[in-house]
Amino acid sequence: MSHGYGAPPGGYGAPPPPPHGFNAPSGGYGGPMGFASPPGPHGPPPGADPQLWNWFSTVDIDRSGHISATELAQALVNGDWTAFDLDTVKLLMSIFDTDRSGTIGFNEFTGLWKYIKDWQNVFRHFDRDRSGSIDGNELRDALGQFGYRLSPPLLDLLQKKYDVKASSPGGFQTHAPGISFDRFIRACVVVKQLSEAFGRLDTDRDGWIQINYDQFMDTVLRLP
User: Which of these, 86, 162, 177, 218, could form a disulfide with 187 (CB 3.0-4.6 Å)?
Assistant: First the structure.
């Protein structure tokens, strides 16, 4: 199964609608999933989508023409208005900072915006009880639809790793129980990247690999 580096699964990535309702609550969700509301419009560069430029200008707080990880972290919110997990923000930066400058420009931001909108469609499709989070059964169904058949013990481990309640010290949480939107993106992308890394090493496609310590460490450290 191949969707390209870090891309959301096909079939749920239809072109997003215009973003004028992007920050409006929708059924079953407490608010937006994506970027916080922009102020009035700014002048876009020639050929740029004015609305997308408006969002970009909102996130670009220091008006540098580029967005840093800190600025992105301040802009991204879940459906319950909680901030995106920092590790998810770093993952998004690693995917869309194509020139490895440490920031993302407007063209890179355009890809990021669509990417998050596509993942919103995926998240809402599998959040069948409209709780605003993904439970174990919904996670199993999502990964199965994407072509990843994890064993029950691995699914349980994945859910515990990315469920805010299960992974927070003392059980403290601000999200709803289950896997929040930001962590759902990260969980799916990590499973995809680990599976692809294994597939590159499993040259005879028998489901088994034999690697040395350096190969193992190289594989792990290359992952975001």
Answer: 162
Q: Tokens 């993942």 map to which residue? A: 119
On the CB side of 147, how many CA atoms lie within 13 Å of its CA?
11
pTM of the entire predicted model: 0.75
SS3 content of the chain, % helix, strand, coil (to 5): 50, 5, 45
The pair of structure tokens assigned to 112 is 């990021």
Torsion of CA 80, 84, 85, 91, to 10 degrees: 140
Burial status of residue 113 (CB atoms within 10 A of its CB: 0-12, 13-18, 19 or more): buried
Burial status of residue 188 (CB atoms within 10 A of its CB: 0-12, 13-18, 19 or more) = buried
Token pair for 192: 């995809």
